[in-house]
């Protein structure tokens, strides 16, 4: 009231300087600049003066006054009711008791770079002003005792919009921070209203005559006269009746609770500085309110909130104070336990899902196994897999849940994720699906993830789709196709002999996976050892013969076992054939094979085969090849083919002279008349002088 401006630093050492000759009525300290704007009077009966002070610069020990100008153009003295300055120093607004608002645009610290205009005129005193900056858009909220308006200053002519038809008293409006979307807060006696520049937002029913409203770090501070409310006082006097005291309430609008409430004697103002709130009372005292740290707040409030089962509020409180994930997880667990104990299993599982990554999954799984709440358990396990935190046991359990619920659509959705999104152990999934009889799902997984053994095992042992298994083997790389034909060849031969034989023919000659495209870049074919596949044909001699004949046609250098087995098959067929024409054909085929020259290294084996099947021409051919002339003759002797005996002597006698002597002995021992043959032999012996005449 003496025209001085006072400074109170943290050390609480007061200092002041003379700013006006008469009185100072309003101050506005910018948050981001050392600029102070004041309104006051230097003499009675003239316009109030606005002064802009630079607190960092000095003028004779006092702050430097960079600008002085009348609050309103013209000479009519008008009472200033409120003042606000934009943090960018380009706007200043002054409200007056006669209902007008003056706007200064441009650099407010200098005369030459700014201009002043009357923005608003009306019949009701202006009680509050606030700038709102959103991107490049600047709005000015103007509240009077009877209405609320919003002006868009970033557009020419500053268009305005009436937001409401009731207003508030002096010091009963404020601008919230981004946590409440920079809304304009207006406190009436029945409610507190929030406004966007273009519409009214939510309202809160806080009763009582409002005296002061501020916004501080996400909290709404309201000082009101409320005869009905009488909370415990920490600062008020000791009188038994507190009915005319003032109530300071600090509201958390986000989480919808009262963070602090107390009764004070006559409050001058509530000020925010140095990270605390200071309540200045008319008796010259300053009361400091310090916000507790997050952990202390939660520890103090959580038991109360949990007791009242206000878990959602506890969660919101923890989130708004950026509690770490471990702390949040513990609240979710307790909330889940609470809902579970009440029998709300659907709600409980939603809370337990929020603990994934922190709470041991077995804690949740055991609860829902006991309760037989399979669909809840399924939801939990699904999320566990989505977050890639599931192990093989969890996969087994989830798939068993799907199969028990017979939920094929969910099952398909789960297994048909793209390869990059697989969040489970594929082999485990295949085993579980197979066990549950979901064979088509199991083979889908096996084929998609190249688990060839599982694919073939299920196709052959469970589905018994032999054609499909054979097609699949034909698409595999050579090594895998070869090993799988050795493993499953017999079962395939039993059910699809022709197709199996065809694949084996390809595998042992010029194999390329059936999926490979044709073209110049195609890899060279590979071939397996045909002899190794002979056991596959154990009970399929017809297919074996076709296979072996194909091998000998295309591969003259086929393994010896191929030729040995083919000879044996041809001899068997010949021996069992009844039709003379066919028998003759089979005879010729066997003899041709014998004469192919492929049995020189296995002479004895071929001879035994021919002898076993009584294949006379083959035996004789082999004797001849082996120069076993005596055996040829003995063969004819056993069969008493006398002409053939003479013939053998004539053919091979020159190479082995003793043949004639053996023939003579043979015929001489015969009881029947063999004079003709004996004479022929003796004649030859005499001509060739093979024996001494005496003998």
Automatic annotation (TrEMBL):
<protein>
    <submittedName>
        <fullName>Vacuolar protein sorting-associated protein 11</fullName>
    </submittedName>
</protein>
<dbReference type="Pfam" id="PF23341">
    <property type="entry name" value="PEP5_VPS11_N"/>
</dbReference>
<keyword id="KW-0862">Zinc</keyword>
<dbReference type="GO" id="GO:0031902">
    <property type="term" value="C:late endosome membrane"/>
</dbReference>
<feature type="repeat" description="CHCR">
    <location>
        <begin position="512"/>
        <end position="676"/>
    </location>
</feature>
<dbReference type="GO" id="GO:0030674">
    <property type="term" value="F:protein-macromolecule adaptor activity"/>
</dbReference>
<dbReference type="GO" id="GO:0048284">
    <property type="term" value="P:organelle fusion"/>
</dbReference>
<dbReference type="InterPro" id="IPR000547">
    <property type="entry name" value="Clathrin_H-chain/VPS_repeat"/>
</dbReference>
<keyword id="KW-0479">Metal-binding</keyword>
<dbReference type="InterPro" id="IPR057308">
    <property type="entry name" value="CHCR_PEP5_VPS11"/>
</dbReference>
<dbReference type="GO" id="GO:0006886">
    <property type="term" value="P:intracellular protein transport"/>
</dbReference>
<dbReference type="GO" id="GO:0030897">
    <property type="term" value="C:HOPS complex"/>
</dbReference>
<dbReference type="GO" id="GO:0007033">
    <property type="term" value="P:vacuole organization"/>
</dbReference>
<feature type="repeat" description="CHCR">
    <location>
        <begin position="352"/>
        <end position="501"/>
    </location>
</feature>
<dbReference type="InterPro" id="IPR016024">
    <property type="entry name" value="ARM-type_fold"/>
</dbReference>
<dbReference type="GO" id="GO:0006904">
    <property type="term" value="P:vesicle docking involved in exocytosis"/>
</dbReference>
<keyword id="KW-0653">Protein transport</keyword>
<dbReference type="Pfam" id="PF23356">
    <property type="entry name" value="TPR_PEP5_VPS11"/>
</dbReference>
<dbReference type="GO" id="GO:0007032">
    <property type="term" value="P:endosome organization"/>
</dbReference>
<keyword id="KW-0472">Membrane</keyword>
<dbReference type="InterPro" id="IPR057307">
    <property type="entry name" value="PEP5_VPS11_N"/>
</dbReference>
<keyword id="KW-0813">Transport</keyword>
<dbReference type="GO" id="GO:0008270">
    <property type="term" value="F:zinc ion binding"/>
</dbReference>
<keyword id="KW-0863">Zinc-finger</keyword>
<dbReference type="InterPro" id="IPR015943">
    <property type="entry name" value="WD40/YVTN_repeat-like_dom_sf"/>
</dbReference>
<feature type="domain" description="PEP5/VPS11 N-terminal">
    <location>
        <begin position="2"/>
        <end position="291"/>
    </location>
</feature>
<dbReference type="InterPro" id="IPR036322">
    <property type="entry name" value="WD40_repeat_dom_sf"/>
</dbReference>
<dbReference type="GO" id="GO:0005765">
    <property type="term" value="C:lysosomal membrane"/>
</dbReference>
<dbReference type="InterPro" id="IPR011990">
    <property type="entry name" value="TPR-like_helical_dom_sf"/>
</dbReference>
């Amino acid at each position: 009231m003496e025209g001085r401006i006072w400074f109170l630093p943290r050390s609480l050492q007061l200092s002041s300087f003379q700013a006006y000759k008469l009185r100072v009525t309003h101050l506005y300290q910018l948050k981001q600049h050392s600029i102070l704007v004041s309104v006051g009077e230097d003499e009675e009966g003239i316009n109030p003066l606005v002064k802009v002070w630079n607190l960092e610069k000095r003028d004779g020990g006092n702050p430097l006054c960079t600008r002085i100008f009348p609050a309103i153009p013209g000479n009519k003295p008008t009472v200033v009711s409120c003042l606000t300055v934009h943090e960018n120093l380009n706007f200043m607004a002054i409200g007056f008791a006669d209902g007008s608002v003056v706007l200064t645009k441009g650099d407010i610290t200098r005369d030459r770079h700014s201009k002043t205009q009357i923005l608003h005129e009306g019949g009701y005193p202006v009680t509050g002003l606030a700038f709102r900056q959103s991107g490049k858009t600047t709005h000015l909220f103007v509240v009077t005792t009877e209405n609320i308006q919003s002006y868009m200053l970033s557009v020419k002519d500053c268009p305005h919009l009436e937001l409401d038809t009731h207003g508030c008293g002096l010091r009963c409006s404020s601008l919230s921070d981004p946590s409440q979307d920079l809304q304009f807060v207006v406190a009436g006696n029945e409610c507190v209203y929030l406004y966007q520049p273009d519409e009214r937002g939510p309202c809160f029913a806080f009763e009582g005559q409002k005296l002061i409203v501020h916004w501080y770090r996400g909290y709404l501070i309201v000082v009101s006269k409320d005869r009905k409310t009488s909370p415990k006082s920490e600062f008020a006097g000791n009188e038994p009746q507190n009915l005319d005291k003032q109530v300071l309430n600090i509201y958390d609008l986000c989480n919808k609770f009262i963070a602090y409430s107390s009764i004070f004697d006559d409050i001058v103002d509530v000020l925010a500085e140095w990270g605390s709130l200071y309540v200045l009372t008319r008796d010259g005292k300053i009361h400091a309110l310090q916000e507790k740290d997050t952990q202390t707040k939660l520890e103090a409030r959580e038991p109360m909130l949990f007791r009242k089962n206000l878990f959602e509020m506890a969660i919101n409180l923890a989130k708004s104070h950026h509690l770490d994930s471990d702390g949040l997880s513990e609240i979710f667990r307790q909330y889940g336990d609470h809902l579970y104990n009440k029998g709300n299993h659907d709600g409980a599982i939603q809370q337990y899902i929020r603990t994934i990554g922190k709470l041991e999954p077995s804690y949740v799984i055991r609860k829902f196994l006991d309760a037989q709440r399979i669909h809840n358990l399924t939801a939990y396990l699904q999320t566990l897999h989505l977050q890639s935190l599931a192990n093989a046991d969890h996969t087994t359990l989830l798939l068993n849940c799907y199969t028990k619920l017979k939920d094929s659509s969910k099952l398909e959705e789960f297994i048909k994720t793209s390869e990059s999104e697989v969040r489970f152990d594929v082999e485990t999934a295949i085993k579980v699906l197979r066990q549950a009889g979901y064979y088509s799902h199991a083979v889908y997984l096996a084929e998609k993830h190249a688990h060839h053994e599982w694919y073939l095992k299920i196709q052959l042992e469970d589905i018994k789709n032999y054609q499909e298994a054979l097609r699949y083997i034909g698409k595999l790389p050579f090594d895998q196709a070869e090993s799988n034909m050795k493993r499953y060849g017999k079962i395939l031969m039993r059910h699809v002999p022709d197709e199996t034989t065809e694949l084996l023919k390809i595998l042992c000659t010029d194999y390329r996976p059936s999926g490979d495209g044709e073209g110049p870049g195609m890899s060279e074919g590979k071939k397996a050892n045909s002899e190794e596949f002979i056991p596959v044909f154990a009970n399929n001699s017809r297919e074996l013969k076709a296979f072996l004949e194909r091998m000998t046609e295309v591969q003259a250098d086929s393994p010896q076992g191929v030729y040995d087995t083919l000879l044996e098959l041809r001899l068997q067929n010949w021996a069992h054939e009844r039709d003379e024409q066919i028998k003759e054909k089979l005879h010729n085929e066997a003899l041709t094979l014998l004469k192919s020259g492929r049995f020189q290294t296995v002479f004895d084996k071929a001879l035994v085969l021919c002898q076993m099947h009584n294949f006379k021409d083959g035996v004789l051919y082999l004797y001849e090849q082996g120069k076993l002339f005596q055996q040829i003759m003995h063969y004819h002797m056993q069969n008493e083919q006398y002409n053939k005996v003479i013939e053998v002597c004539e053919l091979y006698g020159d190479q082995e002279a003793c043949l004639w002597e053996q023939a003579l002995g043979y015929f001489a021992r015969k009881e029947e008349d063999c004079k003709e043959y004996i004479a022929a032999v003796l004649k030859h012996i005499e001509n060739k002088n093979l024996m001494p005449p005496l003998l």
